[in-house]
Structure formats: C-alpha cells, structure tokens
Amino acid sequence: MNILLMIASGLGAVVFLTVIVCFVFSRQILFMWYRVRKAPFNDPLRMQMLKLAIDAGMPAAELCFVDSPVVNSFSIGSRKNGSIVLTTGAIEQLSKEELSCMMVYEIAHLRRGRRLGEIAAVLAGTLTMLPVAALWGAVFTGFGQEYEPAPKLIKFFVTSLLAPPAAFLIQITSRESVKYESDKYAALLYGSDSAIGMLSKLRNQESWGVNPSHASLFIANPLTEDEIYNTLFRTRPSIADRIKRLEEAGY
After folding, report:
1. How many other β-carbons are positioned within 10 Å of the β-carbon of residue 84?
2. Which residues neighbour 108 within 8 Å (Cβ) at sequence distance 6 or greater?
3. Does a structural domain hold residue 220?
4. Domain that holds residue 197
5. Among 174, 129, 171, 170, which residue's Cα sits nearest to residue 29?
6. Residue 106 falls within a domain, yes or no?
7. Are 117 and 174 in contact (CB under 8 A)?
8. Which of 229, 78, 210, 77 is nearest to 221 (CA)?
C-alpha cells in the first residue's frame, strides 16, 4: 500500500512539474522543437510586419523563421507579447500581398491571444511523445527491436491511453470560428484575391511531420488528412471551405 502511494505521489509530482514547465517555457519549447530563428532587426519582412501590426492597432510582434519547404506559419503568445513564425517555403513561394495576408492572419490570432492554445499544444505534445519513449524504453530493456511486435504493442498501448486526453485538450482550447474570422480580417485588409491566393497555395502543400498536437497552431493543417490518428487533432475547417466563404463574401 505504501509503495502504491509513493508511486502515485511520484506520478502526481511529475505531472504537476510538467504542467508548470509547459506553462512557463511553452514558447521556448516550441522554438527549440522547430529550430526557430529570429528575424534580423533590419530585415525587410520584419519592417513589413511592424507596419501591418500598426495598421491592425497591435503592439509589434516578434517575427521568426523556420526552415521548411512547406508553405505554412503559426503564431504564439499574447496580444502584448506575441511571435509570428513563417516557414522559408512561405517566404519563397508567396507573393508580397499573399505573404502580407499570412502575417495579417497571424496578427488577427494574436489580437485574441494564443497563450492558452500554445500551452495546451506543448502539454499535449509532451503526452504524444511518451509512446515513442515507451517504444525505445522497451527496446533498451530487452523486449526486442523497434520493428518487432512486443515494442510496437507497448507503443500502441501507451498511445491508446494518452492520445485521447491529448486530443481532447487540443479540441477544448481551439475554436473553428477564429480561423474564419482571421481569414476575413486578412481579406478586408488586402482583398479576397490575395487571401484566396494565399489559401490556394496552402492547400497544395505536402504534409509536414510536425507533432500532431501542434497542428492547431498552424494556419493550415500540416498533417496527412487521411490518417485516423491525425484526425483526432483536427481543429480547423478545410481550406476549400475557407476559400468558398471568402469567395461568397467578396471582401
């Protein structure tokens, strides 16, 4: 009984510390996870983003980049202390107007604050990493190689336990309507054509192997849509539906 109590207390302490770490260091964790680098002070894109923030009545956000050929972006932080992260693929493949629409979209998200979603993504991401840790723990403790049935079964068991609560955490901290509102905001500032052009290029992208729990942070779903596991973490309307709404509104 005492041993069980000690184990329960130990697990409780680990969970509590994990929540505290995710709450305090969520931004740093995401930056390290994706190897994000800050834009130089005199970068033209940073100057462009600052102008967009002023036009939106927002405090200046921090502009950052992540190396990926995929056209995508995400934002984290709060209204007063936010960061916008663009992929190098977005910078290379979008026109100036389309890139402005992307940054305006992220600024619109920061207007409402993304802190809660950011913390939830990091916490859920930690949960979804544990099955991989369980797999390698099984390998190193003699259950077999990573491709053999026993370690795979252990990974599957841990995934079945942790994926549902991780997905639930993401679902309750995400709102589908925010995506539509941010699309509308970008279209109002730069026109429907630029916003639709930006979304069209997002629709034709290859999948990006991000942690499924982080997918809700991105402007477009970076995951493979037809995988059952990934559908647990889907929180946004389809690109086709977002384009249709903009076409019908005609901003």
Report:
1. 27
2. 56, 181, 182, 185, 186
3. yes
4. 33-115+174-249
5. 129
6. yes
7. yes
8. 210
Residue 228 structure tokens: 């059952």
Q: Give the pLDDT score at 145.
A: 55
What CATH number is associated with residue 100?
Answer: 3.30.2010.10
In a domain, 134, yes or no: no
Token digits of residue 190: 């730069």
pLDDT digits (tens, 9 = 90+) for 114-170: 788 888 888 888 887 776 655 555 555 655 555 555 555 656 656 666 777 788 888
The answer to the question of residue 151 being in a domain is: no
Number of domains in the chain: 1
Distance CA 238, CA 234 (A): 10
* Per-residue model confidence as pLDDT tens digits over 168-191: 888 888 877 788 888 988 888 888
Q: How crowded is the C-beta side of 161, counted as CA atoms within 13 Å? A: 11
Q: How far apart are CA 103 and CA 121, in angstroms?
A: 21
